[in-house]
Structures are given as C-alpha cells and as structure tokens.
C-alpha cells in the first residue's frame, strides 16, 4: 500500500492510526537490533498520539494532512524530550528542550513521531559508520553501508519501520543513503524548508528533507515541510505548489515535452554498471515523451574541494558551542576521527593568514559552480545523472578520507548551487540498489517530483 493510500485508509477508518503505529513497533522489535536504524523509540507516546487522532476521526472532527502517518527523525533534528545526540558522545545526554519547526509542522498536521534514527556523527560522513552508537546495516544489501549521513533514516524506510523519515542533506546526506538503500529521498531548494532546530554541519549548505518508500511519501512530506519560517533567516517566502497534485496525472502528462539534460562528465566519474542502469531510466523518460539533451560541465573536479573547504570552516564555527560548559562534553575531547579532522582543518583554514588563500577562494569557486549549473539548467527542465558514482562498500572496510569523500562528487553540486535534487531507485547491481539523481532550477522542486512519479509508474 502506497503511503498516500494508507493516509486515505486512516482518514476513512479502514485502518486505525493505532494499528499503523503498532505494526511499525512490531517491525522495529524484530529488526532494529540487527539493523540499528533507530537510536530511540517512544512507542507509548506514539500510541497515545495515534489514539487521539483516531478519536478525532471517529468523532468527525477535522484532522491534519498527515493524520496517523508515522515519522522517524534523524538524530540532529530537535524533538522535545528525545535524546538529540547527533550520534556523538558529545551530546549523549542532551534531551531536546524544544521542537524544530519541521517537527511542529508534522505534529500540527497530526503526524506521529515514533523515534530518532542513527547517523554519521554530527553528519560528518557518507556511511553511518562514524556513529558513536555503532554502524547501521543496509536492509537492501545486508553487510554493506546504508550510506550517510542519514543512513538510519534511509534504513528505517527501507526496512518498513516508518511511513516517512526526515534527514538532513549538506552534500548528499539524504540522496546518498536513499541511493544505497533503494528508497526515495528529496533535498528541497535551499531555504524551502526551515533549518530552525537543526544541529548545523554547514549552515550555508544544510537542508532538511523527506525520505520514503514511494513518491507519494515524498509528496506528502514536502507539503508539510515546505513553509516559510520567520525564525529561520534562510527561509524562503514561496507559495509552493500542492505536491500531491501530480499524483492525479497520467505518467505521460508529467514527462511529455520536458527536456532532460545528461552530462557526460557525470557519467565519466561513475562505474559502468551504474551508468547502465541510469541509461535504462533515460530510455524510460524518452518512452514517456521526454527529450534527452547532452550537455557539458567542466567543473566536476572543482566541486569536492570547494564543498569540503566550506564545510570545514562552517563546521568548525558551528562546533564552538560544544565546549562542555552548557551541556555535554567538549567536542574535541570525545568526538570521532572524522569529526576531529574537520574541526582541525576548519580551525587551520579559519586563521586570518589562510582565510584568503582557502576559504575566500572556495566561496569564489562556489559562485562559479552555481553560475555554471544555472547555465546548464537554462533551457532544460531537469538534469539526470547517477546519484552516487560507486557501490556501497562493506561495513568495516577501511577507506582513506578521499575515498569516502568520493561518494559525494555528484551530490555536492546541488548543495553548492542551492538547487533541489532527489534520488530514486534506478535498479540493482548484483542485488545492490543504485539511485537515479534528478536536479532542477531553484523552486522547481515540483518538476523533480513529477518525474519521480512518472518513472515510478513504469518500473
């Protein structure tokens, strides 16, 4: 049952919200010990929420747009009374004292918060192996990483532990695990979703977004998440479309006449087997009436160093509040290897004598990348590419930092440019899921969703 169908079933009293929660709790009890997708589950509170929603429906009262749907939340998004640790010992005893705006949006629409998911420590990673609470397994490819940093959220969706999960995406942290776990993941236009209540990794790049097992879950999530928030200085004032509307269209109507760009330089850095599956998705687009346009992008090699230089400096700045005085421990005293590496690099680059040499040049490079990506998108509707250029490694394999960073080469572009991007399953290589990435102009998130809906219908 698709998530949109489940939502209607709950509203029509064909399925109770309570039963929906109980079903997920049962799956979590069976699977979570081995998968480690959830760090914390509050089943009692979720059942209480569900019973209140069921009562409102039974009494004919107005219910919210998410009534009875169950959400999992990444451990760097504040939820009141849950441990919001960012998967770090630094904050292992920090309880959220307030709700992030996105959490209030969910609760106000009668969505149900079931628990908190695992992640790379402070979102600094691409595998969910750096979590202080242990790595997360990939339900779609057991023994391999689920991707990161939102690996717990992707694994929770892939193992049917929730209807919708929230993740954060700084350089691909929603799309990367969505690709590896074979689910849908969406990074909205920068500023479309409030960042208030998110623990920063890199504030000029971070974006919260939904993950789901089908495109309707993404549409439902976006409808509640995309709102203006006066408490967030990056929040857009944008009268976005109804993201559920495309579900009413025929697939051909959603793709026909659209121009989809393909960039050779993106496939050049990608494994051939992954490219083969992406090519099959492009054939489906053509069968639906889309037109494939071949374009060039000469700055692929510039994207990763630009992203990481900005990330190091902004992460170093964000972590200065974790000094052990107000809560938790001093971050440098207890954090893992990758977090410490980024702090030390950020500290070094931030020194006055090096700022002009590194950080300011990275900002200049970012402006160039943004300009060039917007040029690519001028005259086309979407860019289609692999999400991740290589298959996920086995849990425990030792990768050098640059090998780990290489997972992000095709996803950091959207964050640097502030454009919307998403990943959906393109197929499998030897049973391992592979993602198709779709990118669009700022505020044209709907075009990506339309393409996802259309492609899903012809799988």
Automatic annotation (TrEMBL):
E.C. numbers: 6.3.5.7
Cross-referenced Pfam families: Amidase (PF01425)
Example of a GO biological process term: translation
Domain Amidase: 20-448
Recorded catalytic activity of this chain's protein: L-glutamyl-tRNA(Gln) + L-glutamine + ATP + H2O = L-glutaminyl-tRNA(Gln) + L-glutamate + ADP + phosphate + H(+)
Enzyme class, spelled out: ligase
Listed PROSITE patterns: AMIDASES (PS00571)
Active site per the UniProt annotation: 74 (charge relay system), 149 (charge relay system), 173 (acyl-ester intermediate)
Keywords tagged on the record: ATP-binding, Ligase, Nucleotide-binding, Protein biosynthesis, Transferase
CC per GO annotation: glutamyl-tRNA(Gln) amidotransferase complex
A single MF term (Gene Ontology): ATP binding
Domain of life: Archaea
Transmembrane regions: none
Subunit note: Heterotrimer of A, B and C subunits.
Job of this protein: Allows the formation of correctly charged Gln-tRNA(Gln) through the transamidation of misacylated Glu-tRNA(Gln) in organisms which lack glutaminyl-tRNA synthetase. The reaction takes place in the presence of glutamine and ATP through an activated gamma-phospho-Glu-tRNA(Gln).
Family (UniProt): Belongs to the amidase family. GatA subfamily.
Protein name (record): Glutamyl-tRNA(Gln) amidotransferase subunit A
Lineage of origin: Archaea, Methanobacteriati, Methanobacteriota, Methanomada group, Methanobacteria
């Amino acid at each position: 049952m698709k998530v949109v169908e489940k939502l209607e079933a709950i509203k029509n009293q064909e399925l109770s919200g309570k039963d929906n929660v109980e079903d997920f709790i049962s799956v979590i009890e069976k699977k979570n010990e081995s998968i480690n997708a959830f760090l914390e589950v509050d089943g009692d509170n979720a059942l209480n929420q569900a019973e209140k929603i069921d009562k409102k429906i039974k009494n004919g009262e107005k219910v919210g747009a998410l009534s009875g749907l169950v959400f999992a939340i990444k451990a760097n998004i504040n939820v009141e009374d849950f441990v919001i640790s960012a998967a770090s010992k630094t904050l292992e005893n920090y309880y959220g004292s307030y709700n992030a705006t996105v959490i209030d949006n969910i609760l106000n629409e009668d969505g149900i918060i079931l628990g908190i998911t695992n992640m790379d420590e402070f979102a600094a990673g691409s595998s969910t192996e750096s979590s202080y609470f242990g790595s997360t397994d990939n339900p779609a490819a057991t023994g391999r990483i689920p991707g990161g940093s939102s690996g717990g959220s992707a694994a929770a969706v892939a193992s049917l532990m929730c209807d919708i999960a929230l993740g954060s995406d700084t350089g691909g942290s929603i799309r990367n695990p969505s690709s590896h776990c074979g689910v849908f993941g969406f990074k909205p236009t920068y500023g479309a979703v409030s960042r208030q209540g998110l623990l920063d990794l890199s504030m000029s790049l971070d974006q919260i977004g939904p993950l789901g097992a089908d495109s309707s879950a993404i549409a439902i999530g976006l409808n509640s998440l995309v709102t203006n928030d006066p408490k967030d200085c990056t929040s857009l004032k944008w009268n976005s479309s109804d993201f559920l509307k495309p579900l009413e269209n025929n697939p051909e109507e959603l793709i026909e006449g659209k121009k989809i760009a393909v960039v050779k330089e993106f496939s050049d850095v990608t494994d051939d087997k992954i490219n083969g599956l992406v090519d099959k998705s492009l054939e489906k687009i053509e069968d639906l009436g889309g037109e494939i346009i071949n374009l060039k992008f000469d700055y692929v090699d510039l994207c990763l160093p630009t992203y990481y230089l900005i990330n190091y400096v902004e992460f170093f700045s964000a972590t200065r509040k974790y000094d052990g005085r107000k809560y938790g421990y001093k971050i440098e005293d207890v954090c893992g290897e990758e977090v410490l590496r980024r702090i030390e690099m950020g500290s070094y680059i931030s020194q006055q004598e090096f700022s002009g040499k590194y950080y300011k040049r990275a900002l200049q490079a970012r402006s160039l990348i943004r300009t060039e990506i917007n040029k690519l998108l001028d005259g086309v509707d979407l860019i289609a590419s692999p999400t991740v250029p290589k298959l996920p490694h086995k849990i425990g394999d030792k990768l050098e930092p640059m090998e780990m960073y290489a997972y992000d080469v095709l996803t950091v572009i959207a964050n640097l440019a502030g454009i919307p991007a998403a990943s959906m399953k393109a197929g499998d290589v030897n049973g391992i899921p592979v993602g198709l990435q779709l990118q669009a102009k700022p505020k044209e998130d709907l075009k990506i969703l339309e393409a996802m809906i259309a492609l899903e219908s012809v799988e």
